[in-house]
């Protein structure tokens, strides 16, 4: 089907939907200048996830891991939400039953005004104490390495879900609820390979939701979804808000 008719169909489905759920990945922030993970210039081309984004890596070399996060903090601090982030914040305002699940840790959805939001892999602007577990906002750029907890003195870590770690039970509950009762699931700018988020489209399909993907390229999820729109998120997502 041509893009025009696909776009029209998706707009009709959104207009008729009572509940809309959205899953985003690094592709939506690529248009703001934040690097993706698996693209040609993706972070995992130059860095090994095992060396930087696992609890074992942090135990082995917390300084190296913090240096990598400081580099990303410096980069993300200069970035702004783009038209796709803003359009999703507007969709939330228009749809009373809305939930946004993001794998991104950059905080740009919140900066754009989204509030009905699960940041399922955490947030780069939060730190967590490895001793007492307290979570605090921290926007220092760069953060002083090695940072320590003001309450108990233990080492602080990024409040980010690394490979091999479980997502928060509250986030999983919120996502499960949003997936199991939505009429439409939009999957935007994710390669769809990291679990559990990679399984979200199947959950929504099983309950009969209409599932649409917006991505530059086909993904492993493309065969499963009802409709794919190919292009930049910042160009396509705002079109969903235009009148039918
Ligand atoms: C867990 C944090 C239970 C770092 C991240 C074998 C089989 C199945 C599963 C597993 C397995 N082995 C291990 C697992 C589990 C593992 C997993 O899924 N591994 C995969 C890789 C095989 N998952 C976990 O460990 C998760 N926890 O399962 O808990 C458990 C516990 C113990 C043991 C087992 C299980 C935890 C996952 C947390 C991962 N944390 N990183 C950080 O950010 O600091 S993952 C990393 O990938 C990022 O967080 C990122 O958000 C996420 C997903 O990537 P994407 O967002 O999709 O980005 P990507 O670059 O891949 O794709 C970008 C897309 O955008 C592309 O499709 C591109 O075409 C598109 N695009 C680009 N530009 C645009 C665009 N689209 C539109 N417009 C554009 N302009
Ligand atoms: Zn502490």
Kindly describe this structure.
- The strands form two sheets. Strands 3-2-1-7-8-9 form a six-stranded parallel beta sheet, sandwiched between helices. Strands 5-4-6 form a three-stranded antiparallel beta sheet, covered by helices on one side.
- With 244 residues, the protein is α/β, with parallel strands linked by helices.
- The chain is 37% helix and 19% strand.
- Helix 8 links the parallel strand 2 (97-102) and strand 3 (117-119).
- Helix 7 (83-94) runs parallel beside helix 11 (233-239) and helix 9 (169-180) runs parallel beside helix 10 (200-206).
- The mean pLDDT is 95.
- The longest helix is centred in the first third of the chain and has 15 residues, at 62-76.
- It contains eleven helices and nine strands.
- The protein has two domains: 3-34 and 81-121 and 167-241, TPP-binding domain (Rossmann fold); 39-77 and 138-160, SIR2/SIRT2 'Small Domain'.
- Bound molecules: ligand BV8 and zinc ion.
- Zinc ion binds at residues 129, 131-132, 134, 149, 151-152, 154.
Order of helices and strands: HEHHHHHHEHEEEEHEHEEH
Q: Kindly state the number of beta strands.
A: 9
Unreliable segments (pLDDT under 50, ≥5 consecutive)? none
Number of helices: 11
Search tags:
six-stranded parallel β-sheet; Rossmann fold; binds ligand BV8; 244 residues; SIR2/SIRT2 'Small Domain'; binds zinc ion; 11 helices; single chain; three-stranded antiparallel β-sheet; alpha/beta
């Amino acid at each position: 089907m041509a893009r025009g008719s696909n776009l029209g169909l998706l707009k009709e489905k959104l207009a008729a939907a009572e509940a809309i759920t959205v899953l985003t990945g690094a592709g939506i922030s690529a248009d703001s200048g934040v690097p993706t993970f698996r693209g040609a210039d993706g972070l995992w081309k130059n860095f090994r996830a095992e060396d930087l984004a696992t609890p074992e890596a942090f135990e082995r070399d917390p300084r190296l891991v913090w240096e990598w996060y400081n580099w990303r903090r410096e980069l993300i601090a200069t970035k702004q939400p783009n038209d796709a982030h803003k359009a999703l914040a507007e969709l939330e305002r228009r749809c009373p039953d809305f939930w946004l699940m993001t794998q991104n840790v950059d905080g740009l959805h919140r900066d754009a005004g989204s509030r009905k939001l699960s940041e399922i892999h955490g947030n780069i602007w939060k730190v967590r104490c490895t001793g007492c577990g307290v979570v605090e906002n921290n926007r220092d750029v760069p953060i002083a390495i090695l940072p320590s907890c003001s309450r108990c003195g233990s080492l602080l870590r990024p409040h980010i879900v690394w490979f091999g770690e479980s997502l928060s039970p509250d986030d999983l509950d919120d996502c499960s609820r949003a997936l199991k009762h939505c009429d439409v699931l939009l999957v935007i700018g994710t390669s769809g390979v990291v679990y559990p988020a990679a399984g979200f489209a199947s959950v929504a399909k099983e309950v009969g939701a209409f599932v649409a993907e917006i991505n530059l390229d086909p993904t492993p999820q493309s065969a499963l979804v009802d409709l794919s729109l190919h292009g930049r998120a910042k160009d396509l997502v705002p079109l969903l808000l235009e009148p039918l």
